[in-house]
Specification:
Number of strands: 18
Oligomer: single chain
Structural class: alpha/beta
Bound molecules: N-(iminomethyl)-L-glutamic acid, fe (iii) ion
Helix content: 25-40%
């Protein structure tokens, strides 16, 4: 896309850059040129640009980087949510309900659903999103899920190992062979990442290791769902394989925490899941104090958590998980970027993508202080600037 004009944004009441040199400062200005951040400094010293925008004292933060979502699906599971709120517990098996609906849906219906949810995310300040497959679970349905997701983002993840589908109920080993063989071959052209749901009722740690190794051999980066429903070996596997991120991390031992720190693996916390499954929240404070890098993501999916809102996740992380507002905003932007191995987003610094959010508020603190309030006044992205 062409970017013929430069834009000067002045009178930023609080600019959150996440650049260690620039930090967070008042009275800031920022120039966007050609879809990238061209200049940051005090409003009084701002250079001229083709267009001007007055932020009128409001805050600007990097666009949210949502590193974990499952947007390619049909149907919903509102009934399952209602039952949970009445006392039922969440189990991995509900995934199969969405698999049946997704297999039966035509491509255009699936694509329209992704478009709707990506637009919903954008209205709430998300400018980078990762999208997983995982509700197809056949060679063709996984490949088409990823092909559809690719129409919206380059951050696509092959999750053929979400659960064992009903037709392989008696032959889980045969399903792992399918995932690591023909399904991986069909999915890899449309995927950057490979993921496994390593949990009781989904995949064992040895199956997860085999699937992640096969993905790596096919050129995909590994990531993992682990330690969501109870303690388990998944987090240690993520550290052993040096994965960029392991997601959920709700139930961790001290050894798990130390392994994450030593491996430099990002712990991606998904507090919307604990909210929507009525489970205890992960302890972000413990992870941060131990030196683990923490990201926050939505996990938007029709089963365990149907929110697309990172502001909501930030509010939960501050209220329930011991994070400061600044840590939570960092985790939902720069942290999400780390979890995707990206340095061009999540941090506002000259040369980075101009993905930024103007808040209808004087400070980032309001994202947690004013939960449920639509505070995103507008977004600029590298492709729309
Ligand atoms: O991240 N944990 C596995 N997958 C999703 C849930 C999917 C579903 O319940 O449909 C998650 O929570
Ligand atoms: Fe998930």
């Amino acid at each position: 896309m062409n970017h013929p004009t430069s834009i000067l944004i002045t009178n930023i009441g609080e600019l959150v850059t996440h650049d260690p040199e620039l930090g967070t400062f008042a009275g800031a200005a920022l120039v966007v040129d050609g879809g990238t951040v061209a200049w940051i400094g005090p409003t009084a010293q701002a250079p001229a640009a083709d267009e001007a925008f007055d932020a009128e004292g409001r805050a600007v933060i990097p666009g949210f980087v949502d590193s974990h979502s499952h947007l390619v699906f049909a149907g919903d599971r509102a009934g399952e949510f209602q039952a949970r709120m009445a006392g039922e517990s969440y189990g991995a098996g509900g995934i199969r309900t969405t698999v049946a609906a997704t297999r039966a849906a035509p491509d255009d219906e699936l694509a329209a659903g992704v478009a709707r949810h990506v637009a919903e995310m954008r209205r709430q300040g998300t400018t980078t999103v990762e999208i997983k497959s995982g509700y197809g679970l056949t060679v063709d349905d996984e490949a088409r899920s990823l092909r559809i997701a690719r129409g919206f983002t380059d951050e696509t993840t092959f999750l053929g190992a979400h659960v064992v589908p009903p037709e392989y109920a008696d032959d889980p080993a045969g399903y792992v062979e399918l995932v690591t063989g023909p399904m991986l071959a069909a999915a890899a052209p449309y995927a950057r990442w490979i993921d496994v749901f390593c949990e009781t009722g989904a995949f064992e740690v040895d199956q997860a290791r085999a699937i992640l190794r096969a993905g790596e051999a096919a050129g995909l980066g590994g990531r993992l769902h682990a330690n969501q429903l109870g303690p388990g070996p998944g987090v240690q596997l993520a550290a052993e394989l040096g994965l960029v991120a392991v997601d959920h991390c709700t139930h961790l031992t001290d050894d798990d925490v130390h392994a994450l720190r030593d491996a430099g693996t990002v712990a991606t916390l998904l507090p919307g899941v604990e909210f929507s499954t009525r489970q205890p929240y992960p302890d972000a404070r413990r992870l941060i104090d131990a030196g683990v890098t923490v990201a926050l993501a939505s996990d938007c999916n029709p089963g365990s958590c149907f929110t697309s809102s990172l502001p909501f996740c930030i509010a939960l992380a501050v209220r329930e998980m011991g994070m400061t507002p600044a840590e939570a905003v960092w985790a939902a932007t720069a942290g999400g970027a780390r979890a995707l191995g990206r340095t061009d987003v999540g941090v506002l610094t000259p040369g980075n993508r101009a993905d930024l959010v103007l808040l209808d508020a004087p400070s980032h603190v309001h994202l947690a202080y004013r939960p449920g309030v639509p505070l995103v006044a507008r977004t600029w992205t590298a492709s729309s600037a």
